[in-house]
Amino acid sequence: MKFEELKSIMNNFINDDEIVSARAFGDGHINDTFLVSCKKSDGTICKYTLQHINSNVFPKPNEVMENIVNVTTFLKNKIAKNGGNPDRQTLSVVFAKDGKSYFLDGNGLYWRTYPYIDDALTYNMVNKPEDFYKCGSAVGQFMMLLADYPAGSLHETIKNFHNTPSRYNDLMKAIEEDKAGRADSVATEIEFVKQRKDFTEILVKASEKGEIPLRVTHNDTKLNNVLFDKATDTPICLIDLDTIMPGFSASDFGDAIRVGANTGAEDEQELSLVGIDLGLYEQFTKGYLESCKNALTKREIELLPYGAKMLTLECGMRFLTDYLNGDVYFKTHYPDHNLVRCRSQFKLVASMEENWDKMVEINNKYSK
């Protein structure tokens, strides 16, 4: 977007500050993000993160923002009581001049802004094992701080996002409809999922039986959603809060493992390179449980390895579903990209199954 357009939007959030620059920022795939610099009357520069909320992915941006405002307000109170810095250790929503947490422009686009957190960075990949330990600590701390938040009061911003049985049903429907005429070519992958149908129901059934509680979950706990302090290299907070919803602790644990403890890339074509890195799995588990095991039930802790396998299987099913539907959801860079992603995820599931006893042993080691 042009500077004058961004300036016009930003002026709906600030008063007398002079907007001096605005540029595209970050590498997110969902929302359009810009870094805006403003000059105050005393000459000091303050920066903001301005984002267009993707209403195709989030059909009710107002509910997304209501979740974020409520959760960050709760976090700020907790952080302040703990002697922390509430302006740095969680995101802060800048309200528009009309009092709303977002601005709706003349084109029907929703915008929001946060004060930019200076002297901070994110990592796109694990450079050293300690990085993943710190990621585990940050995700665990997020769970710990929100342990007594009424999760059921949150909006479900993407329906059935981590409802694995629902994702299984979506796949079965895609197989039946076979819109892209590809079902016969992926019989092996389809059979892989069908053999694990009962497994897909474990977390949901545990919830229905009252064995595990609903938690406030982030639902996108990959490493680059953890903000680190440049000076100390310690976690500051979790960012990208759009998918905060009611969910299961095992899901947040599992999604982080799916991405960070994989020896290969999410779309690795050479499947021999894909597997569970037990060293990184242990680092994350250690950091996570040190931060939040006192807030989790015994059953929740027992199900953490299941969450790792569940989220990996679920993601593979989503890639396979999209492949069968003609690649209509995920961005792809070549014809079989979704199939490659699916196979990589299923290979990781198989690796977890081969190393299951070791994963459970690690879990037990740090749950005591």
What does this protein structure show overall?
This protein is α+β, with helices and mostly antiparallel strands and 368 residues long. It has 2 domains: 3-118, Phosphorylase Kinase, domain 1 (2-Layer Sandwich), CATH 3.30.200; 129-367, Aminoglycoside 3'-phosphotransferase, Chain: A, domain 2. It is 44% helix and 13% strand. It has 13 helices and 10 strands. The protein has helices at 3-10, 61-81, 129-145, 164-177, 187-194, 197-200, 202-208, 249-260, 278-292, 298-302, 304-324, 337-354, 356-367; strands at 18-24, 32-39, 45-53, 103-104, 110-115, 120-121, 215-217, 226-229, 235-238, 245-247. The chain has a 5-stranded antiparallel beta sheet, with helices on one face. A 3-stranded antiparallel beta sheet has the order 6-8-9, covered by helices on one side. A two-stranded antiparallel sheet has the order 7-10. The longest helix has 21 residues, at 61-81. The protein is globular and about 65 Å long. The mean pLDDT is 95.
